[in-house]
Amino acid sequence: MKLKSKFYDYFPALTHRNFRLFLSGQIISLIGTWMQNAALSWLVYSLTEDKFKLGLMNAVQFTPLFLFSLYSGVIVEKYSKRKLIIFTQSLQLIAATLLFILVYFKLIKYEHILIIMFGVGMVQALDNPARQSFVVEMVEGRKHLLNAIALNSATFNAARLVGPSVAGWIMSGLGEQWCFFLNAVSFVAVLAGLFMMRMEDKPTRTEVKNHTKDIVEGIKYIGKTPKLLYTFIAVAIIPTFTMNFNILIPILTRDVLGLEEAAYGTLLSAVGLGALVGALSVAAKAKKERAVIYQMTGAFGLSLFLLLMRFVRNYYLALGLLVLCGFFMIMFNTTSNSVLQFNSPDTMRGRIMSVYTLVFGGLTPIGSLYAGSISKKFGVDNTFMISGLIGFTGFMILFLRRRELK
């Protein structure tokens, strides 16, 4: 009993049944998602041998987040978040099944991938703010919110650790199509968890009169709240230009290290391992009052180790540095998310988290095109260095504004 009590002292969010159900489904589903992400990047680079087209594929997937995220925030506040997530997860199951069929029957073309990933991006523009703002409902308030966000990140990155590595072995032995098939099957787990939850499916707001006016109201609130504003500025810079591992790692694997699928999966998993350890550390140790310190530490550490990636020519050194990049990356991401949610009124959380989706994911096309173009012109090693230097800019914004953030 003491051991169980101690466990819940570190991870109190797990005392909530609905959150446990969500997390259990997520870990299975996200392993499938990371398998699909790894398989897609490898498939596109194998089909095209073009670094820019690899970046373009990622840009196309995230463009809908840029176009539609703000309106999604109003929808999230208007309807039941649980029902919205059931809808979006079902559509992603269909997309993964379609990819499996096209690859299995050797009908896949680069253009097909662009169309499907644009569709997935449209679904994620609604899914992301719904899931982000759903966490506070599952843990019934703010008391265990930071712990829940960190555990959610830990789940995401546990999957990031397992998924690419498994994908590498499946691709080398059976082919990319089976990664897409397993991803489709994995969505059943998260859907089952959502259907088993016991909760009132109430919207945050019963009346939404003017979508545009509501969006403007949310943006104005961010502008006059320094804790939100400067966090958003840092989130616009750091994830956009420093977290392009899915584009840079396949290039690093083949062009710099001269290795194949299994090594590629392991290198991607190294980022996941570091991120998992980072997320669990934040979950167990971080307090609301120290969130900004962890946020700055994450920004600094990620930028530093990206700079060191410039000099990598050894597989094992690459593994070590990518673990450290993952650790500090998730420290920044988790605490930035929690700072935003702690300072969001319940009636605006959907809109504020939709801006987070816009900034964190919607600017990814810019980051993807940046990474693909810069690596094509200057090489992947210099791209890591430039990304690290840009990351330091985001860190300095947080450091110089640290008093307002606290």
From TrEMBL:
- Which Pfam family is an annotated match for this chain, by its short name? MFS_3
Q: Which residues form the Major facilitator superfamily (MFS) profile domain?
A: 13-406
- Name the keywords, alphabetized: Cell membrane, Membrane, Transmembrane, Transmembrane helix, Transport
**Which coarse location class describes where this protein primarily resides?**
membrane
| Location(s) in or outside the cell | Cell membrane
| CDD domains registered for this protein in UniProt | MFS_MefA_like
| Record's keyword annotation contains Thylakoid | no
Q: How does it sit in the membrane?
A: Multi-pass membrane protein
Query: What is any one of the record's Gene Ontology cellular component terms?
Result: plasma membrane
Q: Which InterPro entries match?
A: MFS_dom (IPR020846), MFS_trans_sf (IPR036259), TM_effector (IPR010290)
**Can you provide one Gene Ontology molecular function annotated for this UniProt record?**
transmembrane transporter activity
| Entries under SUPFAM superfamilies matching the protein | MFS general substrate transporter
Keyword Transmembrane helix assigned to the entry: answer is yes
Q: Which residues cross the membrane?
A: 21-44, 56-77, 84-104, 178-197, 228-252, 264-284, 291-309, 315-332, 353-371, 383-400
Under PANTHER family, the record lists: INTEGRAL MEMBRANE EFFLUX PROTEIN-RELATED (PTHR23513), STAPHYLOFERRIN A TRANSPORTER (PTHR23513:SF11)
Report the protein name in the record.
MFS-type transporter involved in bile tolerance (Atg22 family)
